[in-house]
Known about the structure:
Elements: E1 2-8, H1 18-32, E2 35-41, E3 58-61, H2 68-76, E4 80-84, H3 86-99, E5 104-108, H4 113-124, H5 131-135, H6 138-149, E6 152-155, H7 158-167, E7 175-177, H8 187-191, E8 202-205, H9 211-231, E9 237-240, H10 246-249, E10 258-262, H11 267-273, E11 276-279, H12 289-296, E12 301-303, H13 305-308, E13 319-321, H14 325-337, H15 339-356, H16 359-383, H17 385-411
Parallel strand pairs: 1-2, 1-4, 2-3, 4-5, 5-6, 6-7, 8-9, 8-11, 9-10, 11-12, 12-13
Amino acid sequence: MKPLLILGTTWPEPQATAAGGHMQQLINFFVQQEYQITFASTTSESDLSMDFESLGIQKQHVLLNHDSFDTFLLELKPQIVLFDRFLMEEQFGWRVAEFAPEALRILDTEDLHSLRKTRETAFKKDKRWTPQYWQQADSTKREIASIYRSDLSLIISSFEMELLQNTLKIDSDLLLHLPFLLDGITRSESDALPTFEKRADFLCIGNGKHSPNVDAIVWLKKEIWPLIKKALPETKLNIYGAYLPEYVNQMNDPKQGFLVHGWAANKEEIFKNSRINLAPLRFGAGIKGKLIDAMQAGTPSITTAVGAEGMHGALDWSGSITENAAQFAHAAIALYEDEISWATAQKNGIAIVNQLHNKKIGYDALRKKLAFLAQHLKAHRAQNFIGALVQHQTMASTKYMSKWIAAKNKKD
């Protein structure tokens, strides 16, 4: 068995977050490849955390700025260390490089944190986001340094691949485009999906800890839903999501058909029973779990350019892509009433899942990349001069700050 250590920002919640679902997909790949997996995190588990025991995965609670992690590494002797987002690489990367130097270091970005953060900042300041705006941010410099220090970074969005390669000229050898890893939708499965006539109402779903989701719900409440409700007075909008803030829960308004339900325990059925999925995302990054969930359930989506970004390549979108409230509402109303257009949008979604998010394609790409790096790791690192440079400079400061904190904690 090949030992693999995953350092998680949190314990994955596949039923609550897209990031948790993608991490589960990665774990399934490594289980299939017969790795001996240990998942470690500094945080506490929740009721929605992934069931590791059923997969034979070891769990380990680790401490920040503590020498016990070094001993843990020496005993585990991992062949691969997977960092769940760049913050974990910042905290533990220097320790892995020092105490498990032969281990392949992989960064799973999930989405580019810096892209999401700078888009949100630009939106709130009413500024236009540009690649140059992103490039100048401190968060971008930190995240890109983490990518260079890693042997391989997994990038979930095709847009983010292009941004890294075209804007920053990052060597493609350091990156692997790895979107959602899904089973294909067969003809019999698509034929068994609920029909247009058997579905009703609108759906919006998103984790309340994710600010783009909360902003989308607020925008729906204030501007978009009143326009839809006026045209379709008998319809309802069902809002679902774990960890929704209290002020969102208080938006619940049965008279207006704006229903806030909280966490969805039966998410698949909710999607299958809804006619249209609404995702008015005005900022964000990565690719959106709620939109891929909708496609798998045969439910067309109305979203924005940010929402659909990096998800569908040259294929037609599963619904409509719009930018302002009036256009968004108009597209939602039109698709809700047009069975022929709705059926076309459903077929488009199935094609996107089968062609662009097929786990067989993703598994093959990841397996080949890992095999190549295992054989050529020394040469691969020798070619990554910028990675060696930032490893020497930035991690030296992180290392000695961490050692100072550890020494201070011992003294205290």
